[in-house]
């Protein structure tokens, strides 16, 4: 059973490879098309190469830090470094594959659009499918692979006790941390890249020189098209890769906690006694196969299809896969979990504070249903607030008639007010999934929601591919029908981009909650009390960080765009014949500016994200604060970041999306004060201003919030064992004091002592793992002692 | 000693009256000036009248709700209704007095400006002083007066026990709730009023008709000038009145808690055993006298003085009063508190959770110093981010050159990034003041900061008076020198307005923290654990409310401004000769629109503010949640509102202030890309767009956050006793079971039984207060019993 999810992931990857070969076999078009496509491909590779250089340095630095943690914390093993490096590598690999397939599918989509719309959809969605399955497959394969490895390494492939499983999972957290670190680079750097190129290209090209979008004479146009891939494909992919891994990991940690609550051993329940830990992986594995089924349903027949039919095809695939996940969850949950004998600790009111409750496996299924439903509803709410023709967008359109200021106020208001239903939904989701099955329920709600990640990503990645295909059609001067067909796909892609962002926030928020819960169990604190002043202070600081992070990301875009503007202006002035199409623009210079700016500007936000939790974990020690209090402070910080980050993510994404579609509304014409108003009107100009403000909101700072909140909680999780009270100095060398009697038929093979010091003076818990050969058979026993230090020592001595 | 603060408040009010007579004796100018001033005065009165009508309804409704609370909760007495009504009345009275003096000082300032600048400053600051002392005097008088009343009524003017003092303070909370409710109407309604009038007047007058600001031909100009008074004078006054009262109250509640921690009786320490409770009132009283001294120092000599000198005069008054408060705090704290014997419960790490520590009175002084310093530094940070010529504003100016979009992005970034230092300061303030003296220290930090309220308000109110004076000079066509002089005062007033907003946020934030701490002591919960899912869910909901509240306030301004625009357009079209100055605009119609819109649009935000805490307190009961858990949930909500509210207040105020000054920078000309750029340039137009977006930010939604967070915490405080586990049904009628032996020289006068049920089953605490005449002397005794219900009943029976 433990190999099942990995096997399913491999099936997903094989299908991905088959699909990839099919896409690559498609006609890649002729001369000019190929040339442009090659430019985009090379630009994307240039970004990846520069990024990898920086990443390598980062991974080395982080590995050293992890080595220090592993050295000082007995429950953290050096293997965390290996897991971290592979997490980073897998995430980068997924991004690399995604970028490559996206930049190669775009031109094939243009070529296919010369034939028919169904063909173009097939090709572009095929590219998206490759991306989706690549990300999901690598995520599940990596996580389950390392779990199997560590499970065998630390526990010999058999259940021993929850403490050893904690070591397995803490080491596994390295994989998740590696993945999320790459996501920081990809999402934040990608967000800055794409908007710097976009704004720069528009400001000089469209506004100053008066040439259309995607015009090959514009030196920044290749950077702009590369940006779509860097931001929307690689950034989104890394984001969801990180969420996927973190969610499943958090659910596994909480699954281990359930086993602890049930007495520490449920081997009698089957599944090697690790059913609750395997379940989230099984759901993830099933999700991959289900996503394949979903992608197969996405197809249209008519060559004259419009947006609605394409959208419908995508919706069918999406909803079928969501429903199948619900069905699969039901069978997996009732199969793998003890039906009515699970006990969980619940926080309740009153003085006792904590209560053990017995819950049925059906409860866990209900919790996962909560996640699936909330994921769907949040996407719907996002669509309402940002959708074309919906009330909020129409109100922004109306407010454009009185100028840019009223347009801006209306857009900001829309983003702000959109937090109402989204946050209430989250609150209900937390409440309900916890009520059903405790924090394990919350984590499984997130896991079930994330199970369709491959499908979601396929839908998401198809948008920028179609967008690029349109750009290539424009630049290579194809027949208008080609552009019309890619425009239909692009338009649908814009809608899926908005709902995809809703899905990404929802997943990030639930993931963070699950990690937050896992954090508390790792540190061993029994709650986070914000009535303690230092904890409250950290709640404030945590609330502030997303706001400052957003501001930094936004002004980064401004700075990078200004550099781009200067470069484009220079080329227009210095390259002879560039405006007549005889001189060749230096695309690579613009690509280089975006690349360098993205990676440089990303550093400060990155330092804040990683630095704050570390400072909070270590600075108070100087003031003599106890570890348990510091753990609560860090928990308060995490909660502050999560609450504020989710709010600002929703606010910025929805405001940006609404502004974008308010501007687009003018393309078909809108009725303002009884008059049809079109592109070029003053109201349209006001709407363009709003859209420009919204661009960094929805594509840079907004989506970055996802990474910020997840990475903050993950760093907390990795630091957690340090705060849990384990430090090297506290472990007396007890090797010599542990005596295991060796007799004729009983021989000592190995003994290992772990001792952790609790916060109270001289109160210790010691674990002694003894392996011996008994009548030729290998037997492993773990002895646990709790009490005053001297007492424990003497007890440990007694082991015979 | 108990009468001292009230006496100081009365001295302050007498001084106010003297100052008021002096101001009223100043020359009120001639025909046209007087006519315009009368219009403004009447407009202000019209708003007050409409507001009072709505207020009366609200006060009646709230009184009924409070009656219900008093009925069901034994520790809440019916007198809370009286306190509430007087709190509302005093706050309204202070606002009324402030508005009247401000609208009468304005024309006198114009008249004085015809003579000299020092005279004009004297008059306008004199008006501000009247306002400041009126608000502070009434606040201290009302609070201390009711405390004396309740102390005598419930405790006979002598220390009995902390439980009875809790009843006194819970009843006193009604006064604070009344005051803060009025602040909701004044601040939010006022904010909508002033911006609706301002935007409406500008859009049609300046932009469409091309007539200057404050032109008497503009029908909305009177409403605009009334708005300055409604928003900046009455709104700010009510805001600080509420903060002042709430802060002192919270400190008193926590002072009572200290006495409890010290064993419940410290009469041996002098001050009737209520030193820690009296101290915050004493500091407030001293602050009034100190503020009078401060105002006396504000004067300039030279008639040719510029902004810098006027600013310096204000700064001297301000800083002297702040330093004097620090000195006074030192003497009061060391005099009134036990020097080294105070014990306080502190939350610490580890399993015990709670620890009693002994602290010295000097620690409390240090805590109050923290408040004073943070208040000053936050004002300085605010000035940096919004000040003319400072880096952030200059950066917005530079970004205006590339259009409105980049101006908006730069302004938003500035507001967002400005949260960094402000929030870190708060975090340090919470941390440090708590480390010095627990939550009593946090409350005293707030009290010490608020002690200079009278001085702060004098500085604040002087700004809009000068602004109005300039308007009157313009409308009555005075010599240019008059306008020049009022412009100097107005310009200084703009700076003080920004720092005043910083002070108001800081005070609101610290007040909320103090109330938050008081809430926890009232409910009897031992912390707020955000690891409990329902509490975490409420933290999310609380974080969302300020965002939605801000959106509602912003869009209210938009709606009301549109109404105003239509009315002004109508008058321009329909009134013959209006543009030639021969037709008379119907000022009152515009005033009526602003008034009605303000009061109508205020309702929904008001309902959200008041409704959410009530729903959270009662809805979960339907699901069978325990009171203690509900109390934690409400606490989580309060924390969410406070953290998010403070963030959004800083963000909106500073962004708005920075946009405003970026626009103003163009008046003197700014250097952009090596070229001097002035009013009328494209960059200036972009800056005007930013300022229009910033207007509702800094004058409506931003300042409303203060009220939202304070009122939320106050409502929590009033609901707290209900959640503390007291409900009518739990109180057995024990009247007949209490037996007090009556003998020859001992006669029963009255006995009162209070019994509260704790959360554990059948575990009760009963208080029996018996008053009897003993040898002709009246003796009051309180008996307290804790234990199982039956046991307590039998004990109570034993009272002989």
TrEMBL record, chains A, B:
Gene Ontology molecular-function annotations: diphosphate hydrolysis-driven proton transmembrane transporter activity; inorganic diphosphate phosphatase activity; magnesium ion binding; potassium ion binding
Highest taxon, organism lineage: Bacteria
Name under which the protein is recorded: Putative K(+)-stimulated pyrophosphate-energized sodium pump
Gene behind the chain: hppA
Family that this chain belongs to: Belongs to the H(+)-translocating pyrophosphatase (TC 3.A.10) family. K(+)-stimulated subfamily.
Reactions catalysed, as given in the entry: Na(+)(in) + diphosphate + H2O = Na(+)(out) + 2 phosphate + H(+)
Membrane spanning stretches: 6-23, 54-72, 78-99, 120-153, 165-186, 241-259, 271-298, 319-337, 364-387, 408-432, 438-459, 503-522, 534-554, 603-623, 629-651
Biological process (GO), any one: sodium ion transport
